[in-house]
Amino acid sequence: MDLCYEALNGSCGKYVRPYGIHVLMLIAMMLTTIVTFIGNLLVIISIGHFKQLHTPTNQLILSLALCDFLLGLFVMPLSAVRSMQDCWYFGDFLCKLHTCIDMTLSTASIFHLVSVSAERCCAVCSPLTYHYRFGFPTVLLMISISWLIPVVFSYMSTYLELHLHGDRDFYETHVHCVGGCHVFFSHGPAVVTSLFSFYVPGLIIIGIYSRIYMVARNQARSISLQLNQLRRVYPSEGTHCRAQKATITIAIVVGVFLVCWTSFFLCNIMNPFIGYTTPPMLIDALVWFGYVNSTLNPFIYAFMHSWFRKAVRIIVTGEIFKNNSSRKQLYS
User: Fold this and answer.
1) pLDDT tens sequence across 60-103
2) d(CA 18, CA 32)
């Protein structure tokens, strides 16, 4: 087996892949990183530039896009080098910093999904009081919580090395090596981290969107009954389509979230209890599946809206540099 540092004792092993697989990995990681970077940058520019988009709701989307943009800018490139080379050549300091930023942004992205879900629930379930509940102070508080808690949690896990608590000797003997930057959690921290970063937020999101679906379905039925009572000749197809669209949107939001993150966090919580026998390459691949969630977020929360498509056209064609372009009407 090749080594990351041939001249050093205790060097990590380096797996040499076939050329074809190497090229496919490079293309996939480059595309994921570029799409994440560009997609979220377009969201940031759109909401930041056009005054019509300066709403409390869009501030949540803007903060989520910023989180995913930073993940594509600072985390994914170094993770790609590590995945391609099976080695970390940037030193222990950057390893800890990269791990801390990775945990912070990935967790913050998930927390933002909870905030967006809560905002949508209030808009659908309590439309009369929505504008009073979700003003800029409320959104600012939600954004602050979505950033601050992941920062503190990631710092404590990484720099205070709480993720090694209970299994430090095993890590030093069997995992740690020169040229490595491994994702490692001992028994207790693996459970706490998985619950904090995925399972609890995931259950909250599922619960919120289940509530949204039930309310939307009841509203559709109520509208249909009112129309029948008034004996108006309106087909029920429109009501059915609205309910169907709500169902599809909920399925996409929850489905993408679960598909991207479930595998990694199942592996993360199980690995300590099966003797850390999960292959590092599998863990690395599951981490990238989690990253894909940040790649897809712009499509789910912005690309589905007509105002974003109009904003992108203005940005791409250069109209954004014209006078008063920030006052363009993107939706009526």
Assistant:
1) 889 999 999 999 999 999 999 999 888 899 988 999 999 999 99
2) 21
**b/e 277-309 (16+ beta carbons within 10 angstroms → b):** eeebeebbebbbebbbbbbbbbebbbeebebbe
Q: What is the pLDDT of residues 256-268, one digit of tens each?
A: 888 899 999 999 9
CA distance 174 to 262: 27
Distances in Å between the alpha carbon of 287 and those of 185, 187, 198, 262, 322? 14, 19, 13, 11, 42
* Both structure tokens of 191: 């459970």
Which two three-digit tokens encode residue 320?
């954004």
Cβ–Cβ < 8 Å for 130, 123:
yes
Would you say 290 and 261 are in contact if contact means Cβ atoms under 8 Å apart? yes
- Return the CATH fold of 18-327: Rhopdopsin 7-helix transmembrane proteins (1.20.1070)
Q: Where are the domains of the chain?
A: 18-327
Helix %, strand %, coil % of the chain (to 5): 80, 0, 20
